[in-house]
Amino acid sequence: MAARLLARAPRTEADLTARLVRLGYRRETADAAVARCRELGWVGDAAYANDRARALRARGAGSLKIAADLAARGLSEALVEAAIVDSLAGEREHDWARRLLERRRLGHTAARSRAWSLLQRHGFPDEVVAELLGNGE
Fold first, then answer.
1. Using the 8-state DSSP alphabet, how is residue 88 labeled?
2. In the chain, what is the straight-line distance between the N-terminal and C-terminal CA atoms, in Å?
3. How far is CA 80 from the centre of its chain?
4. How far apart are CA 91 and CA 45, in angstroms?
5. At what angle do helices 77-87 and 63-72 cross, to 10 degrees?
6. CB under 8 Å to 40, separation ≥6 — which residues?
7. What is the pLDDT along the chain (137 residues), one digit of tens a residue?
8. pTM
9. 10 Å Cβ neighbour count for 5?
């Protein structure tokens, strides 16, 4: 059953365990199944966090939004921080924010308040937005 659940969508170890328990498996059985899946490389919180963070970053999410998403999935703060750094792919957060504005055709000469709002909605920290667009609104 664990393999079927993982075939549908990637999951954290805690989510997989909880789903197996909800399906009626004893906690010990669910834990053993998750451990076996981990041994086989089918599940792993670090890989999940990195993959999820990269996918969100590619869709225009900033570090705050990525952190909130991963934390809501029960991942540890250390895994969240590492995944955010990995998702930057050696670039600055500022570069990812600028790329989002370019994709949306909102260069920093466009309506500044619209650009500011877009970057905040996408979870870019205020200091990144201020650096890119200037202080104030």
1. T
2. 52
3. 8
4. 24
5. 140
6. none
7. 888 999 888 899 999 999 999 999 999 999 999 999 999 989 999 999 999 999 999 999 999 999 999 999 999 999 999 999 999 999 999 999 999 988 887 655 557 788 889 999 999 999 999 998 876 54
8. 0.82
9. 17
Helices 77-87 and 45-58: angle between axes, nearest 10 degrees: 40
Instruction: Read off the tokens for 133.
Output: 């667009």
* Backbone Cα Rg of the chain: 19
Q: Domain extents for the chain?
A: 2-39, 45-87, 93-133
The token pair that represents 131 in the structure block: 């650096």
CATH annotation of 45-87: 1.10.10
Asked if residue 97 lies in contact with residue 128, where contact means CB atoms within 8 angstroms, the answer is: yes
What is the CA 65 to chain-centroid distance, rounded? 7
Q: 63: which 2 tokens?
A: 């570090």
DSSP for 34-57 reads HHHHHHTTS--HHHHHHHHHHHHH
